[in-house]
Amino acid sequence: MKPGPNDVLLVIDVQNDFCPGGALAVPDGDSVVPDINRLAGDFAHCVLTQDWHPPGHSSFASSHPGKAPFSTVRMPYGEQTLWPDHCLQGSRGAEFHPGLALPGAQMIIRKGYNPAIDSYSAFFENDRKTPTGLSGYLRERGLKRLFCVGLATDFCVRYSAEDARRLGFETIVVLDACRGIDLDGSVAAAIAAMREAGAELVERV
């Protein structure tokens, strides 16, 4: 499956806090870096997403007295998993993994900066209707097919892939270049949900 001139490599949240040693480390998260670097050489277009939270974000367990990380609360937009404080704006944890070599990346979409709402997807905040602007960028440039890679399979990759399909983009998830958190079977659920949404899941490209 060779990427074409209208294809985009969408690199999702490959940041220090999601890699080993980070505040919200995805198991083996840094192992995606060599695969992403290899893939990037085949793409004319590359977009990165960056989790970018202000202190005291409403998705942090520390903002909800008595609540532990990975518990859930009901927010105005639905159920929200509570996380350890992570990817604070301007922090080392929010920086991209230093091993990423993507000099041709054309755009960075920052998400999660609204203190009242979390944002998993590259396309929408967690209310599933407030846009990040990525869809308009892709459409204006005539970019029609996305190859999704990064962290984490069961959260930001999943919701990005589902929303890409909902918006009409052809979507391929490269599983070898993704890693998941896997809360109570959430990776298997994410894979099923992405397939149901119409995304194509492949091991390698």
What would your notes on this structure say?
The protein is built from 4 helices and 8 strands. It has 205 residues and is α/β, with parallel strands linked by helices. The model has no long low-confidence stretch (mean pLDDT 96). A 6-stranded parallel beta sheet has the order 5-2-1-6-7-8. A two-stranded antiparallel ribbon has the order 3-4. It has one domain (7-202): Rossmann fold. The protein has helices spanning 32-40, 134-140, 153-166, 186-197; strands spanning 7-12, 45-51, 72-75, 78-81, 107-111, 145-151, 170-179, 200-202. β7 (170-179), α4 and β8 (200-202) form a beta-alpha-beta unit. α3 packs parallel to α4. It starts with 6 loop residues before the first strand and ends with a strand. Pathway: Cofactor biosynthesis; nicotinate biosynthesis; nicotinate from nicotinamide: step 1/1. InterPro entries: Isochorismatase-like_dom (IPR000868), Isochorismatase-like_sf (IPR036380), Isochorismatase_Nicotinamidase (IPR052347). This is Nicotinamidase. Belongs to the isochorismatase family. GO terms for molecular function: metal ion binding; nicotinamidase activity.
Query: What is the chain-wise order of helices and strands?
Result: EHEEEEHEHEHE
Rg from Cα: 16 Å
- CATH architecture type: 3-Layer(aba) Sandwich
Structural class: alpha/beta
Helical residues, percent: 10-25%
Multimer state: single chain
Query: How many domain units?
Result: 1
Q: What is the CATH topology assignment? A: Rossmann fold
- The proportion of strand residues reads 15-25%
Strand count: 8
Number of helices: 4
Low-confidence sequence ranges:
none
Determine and state the CATH class: Alpha Beta
GO molecular function: metal ion binding; nicotinamidase activity
Protein name: Nicotinamidase
Pathway: Cofactor biosynthesis; nicotinate biosynthesis; nicotinate from nicotinamide: step 1/1
InterPro entries: Isochorismatase-like_dom, Isochorismatase-like_sf, Isochorismatase_Nicotinamidase
